[in-house]
């Protein structure tokens, strides 16, 4: 599996919310221009000439200097970038909401504008604080491979050795910082920022991998947590990338079952899961080479469609509630021998503008230090004949790993009111992980949206649930029932050709 495939498969990461936020640009503040001196007061975010207006006016930005190694008094320091939407209330509530992004490797600041609607009502009464986790965004980021190393006209595995060598160079470049880019250090940074900003208690919202950071923070600093909303649970036991195949298989089965249970879909497309398996087997035996008009530029583009690209495309589509509607149609066309739609989708999803801005050095630091140690005996399941864990396992053989505290893999127990959100069709953090986390949280409410994929907060009435829960730290049963309105979207049904009839005289 090449880095292109790694980045593509991990757009939301293995955990990342980028399936929801992909392609969105950083339009808030330019924290690179802020002072690196620790301050207890943030300043108005700066904008470069020509920047688009921010989604939220009056945002404040700043940087806080923290030790790279919190355990050493003589440690070098790094900057942690922070952005805040001040409450618009003249008398705001004293407890803000801290936002923790996913990835691992995603910048909370860079995706902040995508959450405007979800937090619209809560901004009326509380500050919203975005913290770029160390190793991401503007917080001592660890980036790798600025350019896309794979041509769509060659097999995905053709540049495997080249990409691994590039990653070795990246590992060497970041060797001194990579061991300190793990979750426990992020927790220490969050506590530093909370104290520096003068908040006595806070609420947490986290998505995907960010839920792991939030849980660790809840365990380490229980007295400062008023409430937490965790979307797409990724606890320390998740063990990516080894669990990816099984979770993707589950999500594909959910989409397929819906189609086969609806006569209109079944009659047009058959069983999408069976179609996917047959297409994967065919491409593994004989990849298909074709030239298509690029869906974005209309320029001719040569594409070699192989089993690797196919598995990546199907899995990526399963992250998104709307895109997954197309899967039965797309797979049926391919099974019938028409690969044009698949090739166009591959071309579009792998376009440079659609690649997420993920700090892959930080991503590998977390995965290799934490996930790969969580379940060493676990054998990864394949997805459509492709081993999704292969390259990550090879990278972790040479990536600098960090030390973890004793009992790090013990489930977090906490008493703070917590709302857990899961999507029934999530291909990376399915509901079972929410169920496991809830067992150790005394005041947890776990809601599963039957029609949601990876990321529930921005779907349907979920933002209303979020607002009510943060305000009251509980949900009435009648309120929670609205999660049942987030149902699976109907599969796209291609129009049937009209049957000709003889005109009557």
TrEMBL record:
UniProt cross-references to Gene3D superfamilies, sorted A to Z: alpha/beta hydrolase (3.40.50.1820)
GO molecular function: hydrolase activity
SUPFAM superfamilies for the chain: alpha/beta-Hydrolases (SSF53474)
Keyword annotations from UniProtKB, A to Z: Hydrolase
One Pfam family it belongs to: Abhydrolase_4
Domain Peptidase S33 tripeptidyl aminopeptidase-like C-terminal, residue spans: 385-482
Domain of life: Bacteria
Family, as annotated: Belongs to the peptidase S33 family.
Designated name of the protein: Alpha/beta hydrolase
């Amino acid at each position: 599996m090449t880095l292109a495939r790694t980045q593509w498969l991990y757009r939301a990461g293995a955990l990342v919310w980028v399936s929801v936020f992909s392609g969105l640009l950083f339009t808030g503040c330019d924290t690179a221009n802020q002072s690196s001196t620790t301050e207890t007061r943030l300043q108005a975010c700066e904008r470069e000439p020509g920047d688009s207006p921010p989604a939220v006016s009056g945002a404040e930005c700043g940087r806080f200097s923290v030790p790279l190694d919190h355990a050493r008094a003589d440690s070098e320091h790094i900057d942690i970038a922070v952005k805040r939407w001040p409450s618009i209330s003249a008398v705001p509530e004293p407890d803000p909401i801290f936002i923790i992004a996913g990835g691992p490797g995603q910048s909370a600041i860079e995706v902040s504008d995508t959450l405007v609607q979800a937090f619209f009502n809560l901004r009326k009464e509380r500050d919203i604080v975005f913290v770029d986790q160390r190793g991401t965004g503007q917080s001592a980021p660890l980036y790798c491979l600025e350019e896309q190393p794979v041509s769509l006209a060659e097999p995905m595995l053709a540049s495997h050795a080249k990409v691994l060598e590039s990653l070795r160079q990246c590992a060497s470049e970041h060797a001194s910082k990579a061991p300190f880019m793990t979750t426990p250090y992020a927790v220490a940074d969050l506590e530093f920022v909370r104290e520096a900003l003068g908040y006595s208690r806070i609420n947490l919202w986290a998505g995907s991998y960010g839920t792991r950071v939030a849980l660790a923070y809840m365990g380490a600093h229980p007295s400062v947590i008023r409430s937490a909303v965790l979307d797409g649970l990724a606890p320390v036991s998740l063990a990516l990338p080894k669990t990816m195949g099984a979770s993707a298989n589950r999500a594909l089965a959910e989409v397929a079952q819906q189609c086969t249970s609806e006569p209109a879909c079944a009659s047009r497309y058959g069983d999408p899961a069976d179609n996917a398996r047959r297409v994967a087997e065919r491409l593994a035996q004989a990849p298909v080479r074709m030239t298509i008009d690029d869906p974005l530029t209309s320029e001719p583009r040569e594409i070699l469609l192989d089993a690797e690209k196919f598995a990546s495309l199907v899995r990526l589509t399963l992250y998104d509630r709307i895109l997954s509607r197309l899967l039965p149609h797309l797979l049926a066309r391919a099974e019938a021998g028409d690969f044009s739609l698949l090739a166009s989708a591959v071309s579009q999803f792998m376009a440079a503008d659609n690649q997420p801005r993920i700090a892959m050095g930080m991503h590998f630091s977390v995965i290799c230090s934490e996930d790969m140690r969580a379940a060493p005996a676990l054998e990864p399941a394949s997805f459509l004949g492709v081993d999704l864990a292969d390259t990550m396992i090879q990278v972790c053989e040479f990536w600098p790993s960090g030390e973890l505290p004793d009992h790090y893999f013990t489930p977090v127990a906490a008493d703070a009111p917590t709302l857990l959100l899961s999507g029934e069709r999530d291909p990376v953090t399915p509901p079972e992980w929410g169920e496991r986390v809830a067992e150790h949280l005394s005041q947890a409410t776990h809601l599963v949206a039957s029609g949601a994929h990876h990321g529930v907060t921005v779907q349907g009435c979920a933002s209303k649930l979020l607002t009510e829960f943060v305000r009251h730290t509980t949900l009435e049963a009648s309120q929670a029932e609205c999660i049942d309105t987030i149902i699976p979207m109907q599969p796209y049904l291609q129009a049937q050709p009209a049957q000709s009839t003889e005109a009557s005289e």
